[in-house]
């Protein structure tokens, strides 16, 4: 697979995973589960904006472009089936969020300012995101190889 194909599939998989993650986040908020854990509000606040649109845009750029492209670069270096590669990758993304984004957002290291469940809940959300990211990327890679054969 060429680099252009690889780096085209990464953001597409990132978009699919971000859509799934966003739906779960909206359900979590609608059910009132851990309302203090609101990444969209955190990104909105960090952007200096008062509109959630900026938070949503940041969320989609991070999930689609940043993590999608980085996953495409690292996929072949990870072991296991694609969904597991994605979950492994997402564990790294979670760690970055816990030690960089959470303190920058005022939630403390590992988001512990939001409570003891914050790191656990965010890890589970990242594993869902990563499994979808890797699964979609792997499926598009296999489909591309089948068409080329």
UniProtKB/TrEMBL annotation:
InterPro entries: DUF6789 (IPR046739). The keyword ATP-binding does not apply. The chain crosses the membrane at residues 12-33, 53-74, 86-110, 116-139. Keywords: Membrane, Transmembrane, Transmembrane helix. The keyword Transport does not apply. It holds the Pfam family DUF6789. Coiled coil: none annotated. This is DUF1440 domain-containing protein. It comes from Ancylobacter dichloromethanicus. The lineage of its organism: Bacteria, Pseudomonadati, Pseudomonadota, Alphaproteobacteria, Hyphomicrobiales.
